[in-house]
Each structure stands twice: as structure tokens, then as C-alpha cells.
């Protein structure tokens, strides 16, 4: 099967890209899409309770965004900017490095605040770095690191981003991009949903900078996804199985929760372990139209970039025509897009899937 990247393009006026979050987390707009009928309705995120049922399972990603952007100089005095991609040890990491000339192994980088990092080698396009004195890299980031806002937010990070570019339930440090669907929840809303009989579970997927990597292949089937580490514990796998056994729905909060759940389900199926199994491993799952969802029944997600792997994932969930129609509606109705933007609540298409024109 051939599926063209251009099938997932749409016109997005620049003014619809949200550079700041809504005044209150739960006050963003929410476009609801029925994947079977294609029906749309315009609501507010605080109305989420109207779409949930007792016994439903909300699956959140509890990764915590680290202040992963660092600034400094090389020994020559040239400016250098680092974006940590993955923490690999107490004092080590893999990092993107932007400089006039790529540093070589053995180079020292002098970071703002008086810290020194050593470049120890390369791992593909990434640089292996370590703190020169063996101290904790996370501690260094907490002191002088900057929140790594996405490239489409055209401003420097500000004090408010330390709170608002983080979910209220974030727990496990390691992400360099937020699981943005979760940014809309506040603690009061989560407690209200629990009181209504909605259950919760938490997976961990450390979102990497690769989430913003564009699809460069014209035929998306040839695209290779970046790897991200997933931890889906046994209690989450059991909760998913119990939810479905009782006739209730599994609702993924964000595409990272989708990728975690579907990776664990794929692993279980391939190893004869049933519907879903604990999963602690890297995933490079690429979900695009034609993919058959295994465990996710509903999806809460923000609006995504044209031609991105994330809009492809949504098209695989709700159907191509339904999804693209919803996006055109969102543009016409001036919804806000991307990380700090508005969101969607989507029920899965169970009818035969409609595919992109090129498929």
C-alpha cells in the first residue's frame, strides 16, 4: 500500500498557532468527533464529564518535562545550544547540539552558570555528553536549564511555562516535550471524574524531540519513526483487560498514551500473551491509516501539524475523511492549534475504515 504524505496536508493560518496556554487549564475548547458518524460538536474541556461513563479507564502519561535546553560556549568562545534528548545515567545523556561547527569527542562545553560538560562521542545524529565533575545532570538542568518549548512557539520560555508546559500529574522526569493532551486537566477535574466512577491509570513515555521530526518520505509507509522508551506496568495491563471485560472503554489521554498502549498490545499479540501485557522497552510504532487499533476506544488529543505522524495516527483512529473534515472545521471556527492549543475528544471508528485518496 502507498499512502502519500500530501494527503495529510491542510492550510493553517499562523494566527491559529497558540503561543500561550488558555487562562485556565480546563477552559480550552474541545471539538468532539464521532468516528462512526463523523458528527462534530463544539464544547469546552470542562464538559469532558458529559462524554465519559462510570467504569471508563482514562490512561495518562505521567512523564515529566525536564528543562532540557542549555546555552553556553565552546572553548573557542563560539556559542553552543544543547537540547537533551535522553538522560542515560546520573551524569550522562544524549543531546542535540547546535553550534557553528560540531564539537568533537573530548571537547569541553562551558554552560551558563559555570558548569562544564564533556562531549564523549556520537550516537548517530546525537552527541554523548557527561558532566565534567560527575555530578547529577538533572540537578544541573534544574538550576540552569530552560523549558524546551516546541519550534512552532516563536518566543523564549517564560516563568509560566515551568508550570503550564507540565501536566498536573507529571511524576517521572525525562521528557523534552509535554504530552500535551494532558495539559488541559487540573486536579479538581480529575477528582470529579473519579467521583463519577471513572478510573485512571498511568503509563510513562518520555517524549523526545523526535516527536517534531517531519515526515520526509513522499510515501509515508517508508518513514521510520524515532524511538521512545515506554513503561507500562502490570497493573495498567490488568486494568485495561478488566475494563474491556466489564464492557467499558479505554480512553487514551494523548497520542503518547496511544503509542504506549498499542505497543504493549502488539507485544502481547506477537508473543501469545493475550490482549495486552506489561511493556518496558523502546517503541518505534508508527500508526497510520490501515492500522487496526487493539485496545484504545476513545482519544483525547490536541490538534496536530499538517503532514505529521500524529495527524496520521488520528486519521487511523477516526477515519481519514472524518478527521480531515474535523480539522477543516477547526480552522474555519478558529480553534487554537498545537501544544498550547485546544483539543479533541474522539470515539474510534468501528465501521470499515475509509483510507486516504492515495491508498
UniProtKB/TrEMBL annotation:
Molecular function GO labels: S-adenosylmethionine:tRNA ribosyltransferase-isomerase activity
Residue stretches spanning the membrane: none
InterPro entries recorded: QueA, QueA_dom1, QueA_dom2, QueA_sf
GO biological process, one term: tRNA queuosine(34) biosynthetic process
Catalytic activity: 7-aminomethyl-7-carbaguanosine(34) in tRNA + S-adenosyl-L-methionine = epoxyqueuosine(34) in tRNA + adenine + L-methionine + 2 H(+)
Keywords on record: Cytoplasm, Isomerase, Queuosine biosynthesis, S-adenosyl-L-methionine, Transferase
UniProt enzyme class: transferase
Pathway linked to the protein: tRNA modification; tRNA-queuosine biosynthesis
UniProt KW Cytoplasm keyword: yes
Superkingdom field: Bacteria
Cellular component terms per the entry's GO annotation: cytoplasm
EC numbers, comma separated: 2.4.99.17
Keyword Disulfide bond set for record: no
Localization of this protein: Cytoplasm
Family affiliation: Belongs to the QueA family.
Stored HAMAP family: QueA
Record text on subunit structure and interactions: Monomer.
PANTHER family the UniProt entry points to: S-ADENOSYLMETHIONINE:TRNA RIBOSYLTRANSFERASE-ISOMERASE
Function according to Swiss-Prot or TrEMBL: Transfers and isomerizes the ribose moiety from AdoMet to the 7-aminomethyl group of 7-deazaguanine (preQ1-tRNA) to give epoxyqueuosine (oQ-tRNA).
Identification of the protein by name: S-adenosylmethionine:tRNA ribosyltransferase-isomerase
Amino acid at each position: 500500500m502507498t499512502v502519500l504524505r500530501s494527503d495529510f496536508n491542510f492550510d493553517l493560518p499562523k494566527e491559529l498557532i497558540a503561543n500561550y496556554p488558555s487562562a485556565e487549564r480546563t477552559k480550552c475548547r474541545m471539538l468532539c468527533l464521532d468516528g462512526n458518524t463523523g458528527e462534530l460538536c463544539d464544547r469546552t474541556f470542562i464538559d469532558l464529564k458529559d462524554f465519559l461513563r462510570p467504569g471508563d479507564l482514562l490512561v495518562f502519561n505521567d512523564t515529566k518535562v525536564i528543562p532540557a535546553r542549555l546555552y553556553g560556549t565552546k572553548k573557542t568562545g563560539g556559542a553552543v545550544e544543547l537540547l537533551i534528548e535522553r538522560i542515560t545515567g546520573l551524569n550522562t545523556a544524549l543531546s542535540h547540539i547546535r553550534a557553528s561547527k560540531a564539537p568533537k569527542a573530548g571537547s569541553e562545553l562551558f554552560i551558563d552558570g559555570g558548569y562544564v560538560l564533556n562531549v564523549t562521542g556520537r550516537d548517530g545524529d546525537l552527541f554523548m555528553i557527561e558532566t565534567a565533575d560527575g555530578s547529577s545532570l538533572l540537578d544541573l538542568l534544574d538550576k540552569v536549564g530552560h523549558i524546551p518549548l516546541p519550534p512552532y512557539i516563536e518566543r523564549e520560555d517564560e516563568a509560566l511555562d515551568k508550570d503550564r508546559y507540565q501536566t498536573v500529574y507529571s511524576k517521572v522526569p525525562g521528557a523534552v516535550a509535554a504530552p500535551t493532551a494532558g495539559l488541559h486537566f487540573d486536579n479538581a477535574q480529575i477528582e470529579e471524574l473519579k467521583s463519577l466512577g471513572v478510573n485512571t491509570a498511568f503509563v510513562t513515555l518520555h517524549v523526545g524531540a523526535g516527536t517534531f521530526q517531519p515526515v520526509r518520505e513522499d510515501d509515508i509507509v517508508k518513514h521510520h519513526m524515532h524511538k521512545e522508551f515506554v513503561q507500562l506496568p502490570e497493573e495498567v495491563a490488568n486494568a485495561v483487560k478488566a475494563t474491556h471485560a466489564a464492557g467499558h472503554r479505554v480512553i487514551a489521554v494523548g497520542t503518547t498514551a496511544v503509542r504506549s498502549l498499542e505497543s504493549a498490545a502488539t507485544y502481547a499479540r506477537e508473543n501469545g500473551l493475550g490482549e495486552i501485557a506489561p511493556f518496558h522497552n523502546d517503541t518505534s510504532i508508527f500508526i497510520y491509516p490501515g492500522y487496526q487499533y487493539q485496545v484504545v476506544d476513545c482519544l483525547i488529543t490536541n490538534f496536530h501539524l499538517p503532514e505529521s505522524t500524529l495527524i496520521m495516527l488520528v486519521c487511523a483512529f477516526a477515519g481519514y475523511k472524518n478527521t480531515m473534515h474535523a480539522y477543516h472545521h477547526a480552522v474555519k471556527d478558529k480553534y487554537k492549534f498545537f501544544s498550547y492549543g485546544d483539543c479533541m475528544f474522539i470515539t474510534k471508528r468501528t465501521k470499515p475504515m475509509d483510507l486516504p485518496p492515495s491508498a
